[in-house]
Fold this sequence. Notes:
The complex is a heterodimer of chains A (329) and B (262). Chain A has 329 residues and is mainly α. Chain A has a single domain (86-328), classed as MetI-like fold (Orthogonal Bundle). Chain A has helices spanning 2-6, 24-62, 65-68, 85-116, 119-134, 137-163, 182-206, 210-218, 223-252, 255-260, 280-288, 293-328, and strands spanning 72-73, 81-82. In chain A, α7 (182-206) packs across α9 (223-252). The mean pLDDT of chain A is 89. Chain B is of the alpha/beta class. Chain B is built from 10 helices and 10 strands. A 6-stranded mixed β-sheet of chain B has the order 6-7-8-3-9-10, sandwiched between helices. A 4-stranded antiparallel β-sheet of chain B has the order 2-1-4-5, with helices on one face. In chain B, α3 (108-118) packs parallel to α6 and α4 crosses α6. Chain B is globular. Chain B starts with 10 loop residues before the first strand and ends in a 5-residue tail after the last helix. The interface between A and B is medium-sized, with 19 and 28 residues.
Amino acid sequence: MESELANPKANQARRKLNVGPRSRGDRVFFGITSLAANFAFVLVALILVFLMVSAWPALQSQGLAFIYGSTWVADEGAEPIMQLGPMIWGSIQIAFIGILLGTPMAVATAYLIVFMLPSRAAKVATTVVDLMAALPSVVIGLWGLIVFTPVAAHWAQILNQTLGWFPVFAIEGEQPTYVDSPFIAGWIVAVMIVPIITSVTREIFSQMDSGLINGALALGAGRWAVLSRVILPTSRGGILGGVLLGLGRAIGETVAILYVLQLSFDINWYQILEPRGGAVASFILARFGEATPLEFQGLMAAGLVIFVVTLIVNTIASLIVNRSTRRVK
Amino acid sequence: MTNSTPSASTLSAEDISVWFGERQVLSNVNLVFPANQVTALIGPSGCGKSTFLRTLNRMHELIPGAGLAGSVLLDGVDIYAPEVSPVDVRINIGMVFQKPNPFPTMSIRENILSGLKLSGRKTANADELVETSLRRASIWNEVKDRLNDQALSLSGGQQQRLCIARSLAMDPKVLLMDEPCSALDPGSTRRIEETIEELSESMTVVIVTHNMQQAQRVSHQTAFFLADENTPGGVVEFGSTEQVFNTPVDPRTNDYVNGHFG
C-alpha cells in the first residue's frame, strides 16, 4: 500500500514532448542559424587539417629538432635543415615582455574608467581603447618603426647604461644601435594587447560588488588599499583570463613585429636589448615569398605550432574568464 | 567588557542638508547622539535616513555629484574640517551595511584584521584583537575553531556579525548601522540586537531600521524622518524612543509608528 502511495503510477508512459521547430519558417530559420553556428567550428577544423597535411612531411623529416634546434637552411637543391627553436623562443620572449609591460597599463586604464572617471568621460575612454584594438597591425608596425623605435631606443640606451651590469640589459657588440630588439618588439606587442586586457578587466571591475568597496572604505582604506587588497584579489582570475587572451594575440602577431625586430637564428636567450630575436609568425611571413616547396612545408609546420599554441591559450583564457565572471557576480 | 569604557563619544549633526547634483534630498537636520546611547533612525523608504547616516562618517562624499551643508561634530570637532582626514573619521566612526559584505578572498581571521591592513596600521597582538573583536560581536564561540576558513563559508547572520566584529577591531567611538538585520532571519536578528545592547556600553550607536519593534527594542532615542513628494527629507520628530512611540507630538509620527502609512 505504502509504495503505491509514494509512486502511484509507476508504469505511466511518458509523453514525447515536441520541442523542435514547428512551422516551415521555424525549420528554415533553425537550419540557417545552426549552419552559421557550425561554420566557424568547421572552418577551424578544416584549417587544422590543411596545416597538418601540409606540415606532415617537414615534421617527419626534421623530427623533434624542428622545435628545439636552431638552424634553418633551405636552399634549392640541398636537403633542408629546418629547426624553429629561436623563433619559438623569441615568440615566447616577446609575448612575455609585452604582457609584463601591457598588464599594468591595462589594469590602470580599466581602474580609471570604472572607478574614477565621470560616466561621460568613461564612455569616451572606453571607445578610444576599443578603437585601439581595431587598428590594423600594419599601421601599428609602421608607427612602431617610424615614431616609436627612436623613442624606445632612447629608453633602451638608458636601461643599458644604468642597468647594463644586469645580464638581461647587457649588450655585447660595440657601438650598439638599441633598435630592432625584442625589447622594442615587446613594447609593440604591449600596445596591441592593452585593449584586449583592458576590456576584459573593465568588464570584471564593473561587476565588482560595490558593497565590498564601500566596506573597505568604511574601514579607513585609501584608493590604493582598496585596489590592491580588495579589487585585485577578487578579480585576479578574470584579469588572468584577459592576459591570456592578450597572449593569444601576442603569439600570433606578425606584421607589426616584422617591422621592428631583427629576426635571427642565433638564439637570443635573454639579452632583450640586442638586435636579434625571433617570432614564429613574422618568420613565416618573411620567408613565405621565396620559399622552395620543401621549405614551404616547414613554414606550414611553423604555422601549425602557432595555431595549436594559440588555440590552447585561448581555450584556457575563455574558461578562466567565464568562471571568474560567474564568481564575481 | 566588565565596565563601560569612557571611549564613547558624542556625535552631533548641525543643520545637515544634502544634495545629489541639483536635487536636494535632506534639509536642515539637527540631531545629537549622546555617548553610550543607541539612536534609531526610522521613516519610510526614500526619506533620506540612509543618506543622512552616510554623512556621519563621510561615506556620502564618495558619491559623484554629492553636496553637503552644515557640520558633523565628533566630540566638538568638525569631521569635515579641511585638516581632518576622512580615513581617521572612518576609523573612529565605524559602519555596518545592510548586506553583509565580508571580503570573499579573506579568511575569518583576515577579515577581522582587514581594517588594520587597509588603513596601514599595525597591532601588537593580532590574536588577542581577533578574539576580543569576535567576542564583542558574540560570534567567537561559533568560529573559534575555524578562524582560517573562508568568510563566505559562514551563514548570512554570522557574516553580518563578522562584519560587526571587523568594525569593532578598529575600536571605533561610534558605530553606524544601516538596516543591519534586513537581510537576516529572526534568530540572527535577535542576536544582533543583543550585541547592539552590549556595544552601547562602550560606544555610541546609530541604527537605521524599518522595523518598528526593533527600534523600540534596541534604541534609547528615535528620530523620525519624512520626505513629502518632491521636497527634501527632514526630521519630523526626535525624542526618547518611549516618547516617540507612545506619545508622539506630530500626527504624522503617530500615523507612521502605528503602521498607517510607509
